[in-house]
């Protein structure tokens, strides 16, 4: 994989921002690994009725995602947080409500720790600061290093075969149209970029950032998620001062796609709650 700095211009040109809805407040939607901004289509109409909504594609994701990705800039989540902050500034928005799924939960926390005055509230679906179990601190992240090494090997050996098993595993109980949607967005990511992004995510440990988050934070997790166990929800709630945590009786890592009729009103309630 080659670095492509010459293709990186403004965040607004690279990340395909999309506006919808109406209202006085702005909600920014940021998706997780393997998705693009269309993952919000299932719950977006509910949000559009109450807010101006801005979504975008994370670097490397969506149509033409390889042109938005830079190996150096996006070697850590701090680069993705920089993208988020740059996009908000370029769209000339002063304050936002932020909804982030999975890795974008941590991206939002990093950005809010750096620019707390920009974010009125974080509503985070299935976020995790660290996916590795840490025996030294009794932290349960969900994976041992041997599990991840096997995943990386399978991904490098046969990407198509790996993806065919990965999609239903992370989605849990899902209808075929949901599986097809996630598969389609996953395959839009160039395999070498996907491998690099996933390894970067799973090997990262941002637990030290979490206590620096002073923004009003709402945590939403599925009861059963192979990628982010409920232990992570409990750890985050304990380490973010004043946070609110809600565990839904759902299965899977992408409940906003698989069970939007349940997730949409929960997200809306946490956005509107005063």
TrEMBL record:
Annotated keywords: Hydrolase
Keyword Zinc-finger: no
GO MF: hydrolase activity
InterPro entries assigned: AB_hydrolase_1
Residue ranges of every copy of the AB hydrolase-1 domain listed in the record: 27-264
Family recorded in the similarity comment: Belongs to the AB hydrolase superfamily.
Protein name per the record: Alpha/beta hydrolase
Native source species: Comamonas aquatica
